[in-house]
Amino acid sequence: MAQVLEFKLPDLGEGLTEAEIVRWLVEVGDVVAVDQPVVEVETAKAMVEVPCPYGGVVTARFGAEGTELPVGAPLLTVAVGRTADGRPAGDGSGAGTDGAKDGARRREPAAEGSGNVLVGYGTSEAPARRRRVRPAAPGVNGRPRAPEPVRDTRPTETPSTPTGRTAPADGPVPVISPLVRRLARQNGLDLRKLTGSGPDGLILRADVEHALRAGDTQDRPDTTKATAAPAAAASGVGTASVTRVPLKGIRGAVADKLSRSRTEIPDATCWVDADATELMRARAAMNAAGGPKISVLALLARICTAALARFPELNSSVDTEAREIVRYADVHLGFAAQTERGLVVPVVRDAHTRDAESLTAEFARLTEAAREGTLTPAQLTGGTFTLNNYGVFGVDGSTPIINHPEAAMLGVGRIVPKPWVHEGELAVRQVVQLSLTFDHRVCDGGTAGGFLRYVADCVEQPAVLLRTL
């Protein structure tokens, strides 16, 4: 007999609490296999295809494209097994409305498990559990509640009168995400006046955005109106020409992380110009010898790992709660990559064990994945030091913000011909500006200066690296 199993949005790792549905990969009535990707979601870190741990027929989907769901919210239901008359589950009318009704009775999952391990979904039998499904609730803020199956068409954008659960005047507001609170606060929206479309009335980011789109701003504080007019008058721009862009997805995650870095880390920056002529000649000689081409970024990364071996204080982080400096023996090197979706920092694992060829290949692989939006959360976290090559933007110098919770970042400007005194004579040389931004809690200026000077020496005389190879 067919069993209808509910697949919930799993914990995608690294403390992520919500995800936005970007694209459904299956329709109601489709047959799916175990571990088949069923939906593409966007988290604050990356685009992720979510595989389903069950095989069977999709009987319902929860949430239209563009809907934001919290971790643990239902994604879809799958009919597993066969019906009483021997047909595959969901065949015929069972894949439509009747299949959705069958979801009212949750049964014990089949013994065959998924090969992929999602947080909350193991590879063995799940514990038996029965749950009752609440009766259908009316639309909230013009959209159906998240636990309700939706049809293939998107929900209507016409706002309806909220009739669901609202927060009591003196009780807690049902919001989990700090991003949702910040979005509402920035737009002067009173969350107590909204009714959430998530489970148990949880207010999602989509609820706030829908209220803003619908022009539901009559509850904004008077201070917003009082300050908006002077600001517009002072800038000479009317309010009609102002566009508000929600800080969401990667842009929101970057904003939060950089703000936290500036708030928590007492950073300082030092910089130095270096003659990179010999480094460029060494690279040209390597590439002329045949084999895979070596990138400048790979050579700089190799120099970084050698410098961190001499100055391990900078390969660390600060545990503020324990008031301890945590030093890492392994170097997991992050590098800044600009993509159409925003700035991301992929991480090269165990960079200290890699040679220039291996580093070149890994940089190329992660950069391509970043451009395609296929980086996983694991590939974007866990770095211990970051290399930022902002020279690709045609600039010489910068004071980069440390990638929290790391303790330092090396910035590299463009390499350009400049007048330079070489061996006592004025000559045109390939010059680069290097900058190091560091957490002053982990070391003093002497350590930071020593690190940067060693990097510059290796750039000017690559043979210095031979001592550590």
TrEMBL record:
Its cofactor is (R)-lipoate. CDD domains: lipoyl_domain (cd06849). Its EC number is 2.3.1.-. This is Dihydrolipoamide acetyltransferase component of pyruvate dehydrogenase complex. Belongs to the 2-oxoacid dehydrogenase family. It comes from Streptomyces griseoincarnatus. It holds the Pfam family Biotin_lipoyl. Residues 83-174 are annotated as: Disordered. InterPro entries: 2-oxoacid_DH_actylTfrase (IPR001078), 2-oxoacid_DH_E2_comp (IPR050743), Biotin_lipoyl (IPR000089), CAT-like_dom_sf (IPR023213), E3-bd_dom_sf (IPR036625), PSBD (IPR004167), Single_hybrid_motif (IPR011053). Residues 99-110, 145-155 have a biased composition (Basic and acidic residues). SUPFAM superfamilies: CoA-dependent acyltransferases (SSF52777), Peripheral subunit-binding domain of 2-oxo acid dehydrogenase complex (SSF47005), Single hybrid motif (SSF51230). Residues 175-212 form the Peripheral subunit-binding (PSBD) domain. Residues 4-79 form the Lipoyl-binding domain. Transmembrane segments: none annotated. Keywords: Acyltransferase, Lipoyl, Transferase.
